[in-house]
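Work Package 3 (structural annotation) set out to generate three-dimensional models for the target panel prioritized at the project kickoff. During this period the team completed the workflow that converts sequence records into discrete structure tokens, so that structures can be stored uniformly alongside our sequence database. As a representative example, we reproduce one entry of 358 residues exactly as it appears in the project archive.
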Amino acid sequence: MSSRVFSRSDVLVLLGSVVAVAAAGVARYAGAPAVLAFVVAGAAVALLASVVGRSVEQLGDRFGPGATGVLQSALGNLPELFIGFFALQAGLIAVVQAAIIGSILSNILLVLGLSFLVGGLRNGPQRFDSERARTSAILMVLAVAALVLPSLAQYVHAPAAPHERELSLIVSVVLLGVFALSLPAALKRAPVSHDPVEAEGEVSGTRWPLWLAVTLLAASSVVAALVSDWFVHALEPAIEALGISQAFAGLVIVAIAGNAIENVVGIQLAYRNKADFAMAVIIQSPLQIALVLAPALVLLSLLTATTLTLVFAPMLVVAVAVTVIAVAFVVFDGESTWLEGVTLIALYAIIATAFWWG
């Protein structure tokens, strides 16, 4: 193993991230066109995501899939939290609600599908810890069911319908409690599905000191949160300039940009045949969105002029319900193939198309 701390690709990604963040800052404060500022900020987040991905790889062999997945998802969802909060301050409630559902869909359809596709084409069928996957899938189904319950109460005109704000607050507190109770199981170290010696050789030819990996992971996530402020500043003008609906912008564009970290990390890990780590990272993110991000935004909305509730549009509820049930069946056997990945990506494309017109 090389004695260098960084490989050549590490240096290129780190330098690229610095340049991209600087360019995004210039675009934000120099009055650049909204679409340009929007694209540059998204590119900066994506490059920062690659830094996070490399840091997670370095931590994976030390902490195990469970703890790594929780840590990466928690830091990876920071940009989404900031994007959501700033969008609420701007009154873009339709974008925020669509982005919450879109973040769940993009992770468990697009990102999981791409990881299955890339990992399957590169390594053949991949196996992961089926028990952990089943537990996460069941928890995901239950979390989403609780998340959309206020919407169902509104649709059937239940007695709780006029109290959607109070119901949303109660559901949010309960979901945060469930997340706290689920942490011990998520942090439990699971056996890795491949030889640790082989895994160490796959990590970009270098091994970072633990303090460096943790520092870069935290710093890049925090900077990504800062860039998300610039991203939101250009969001509404960019939507108008591009002529797209708020629903599509939230469901697809904002969700993918906010999940850029998981997009890169999950696919990188699957490509390197680290299926346990990939599954832990990808599944933890939508789980934290349902159990933490959405409830946190509901509570934080109390600090803004825009009140966010958990009453979503019917199409959003149907899309997320169908998705989590389908994915639960896919991951139950503990094995992934490239064809399953293609199917998940296709379902995501169909759902995104359905929201193109609003």
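The first strand starts at residue 126 and ends at 127.
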